[in-house]
Amino acid sequence: GGAICGKCDTPKMCLVPADCLSGSCINNKCADPTSCKALKQSNPAAGSGVYTLDPDGAGPKPPFQAFCEMQFDGGGWTLALKADGAKANFFYDNAIWLNASTFQPQFPALDHNEAKLETWNSIAFTELLVGLEQPIAGPGALNLKYVKLGIAKATLFALFSPNTYVASAIGRNA
After folding, report:
1. Among residues 105, 83, 107, 104, which one has the least CA distance to residue 94?
2. Does the model's pTM come out above 0.85?
3. Torsion of CA 31, 15, 28, 68, to 10 degrees
């Protein structure tokens, strides 16, 4: 009989995404996916969780951790921001909305810890998914209600740039 090998790290050779720790096999090499959407496309069986993403591949920006929602509406959603309206960090007029700084990037998971992740600066999108907790349950699992916005931008940083207005068609009830 033969031995069973463990999953390979980047940039080892692979045949299928399941061969890789990252869950992403690109051109027969294990690699960090460029986004959650790219991971879902290359590995439809990937589950929701925190993954290492590298949007610019071999470019100058280092890989970072982000939560990927892989079940809702076909999956492939990349978490960028978690805000608690009862805290002052993300008040409407705070500079955090208009700068490229991250906030508590050590909390990339989908949980109650506020965070502004590198995703804010690095992931292009054609749809924006907004999740609001309803009812607010406190510690433990989140109970999110989602609303999709048909907005496309190079990054969320670009969306929130000064003097930028982007209309949505969801209306107040949504």
Report:
1. 83
2. no
3. -30
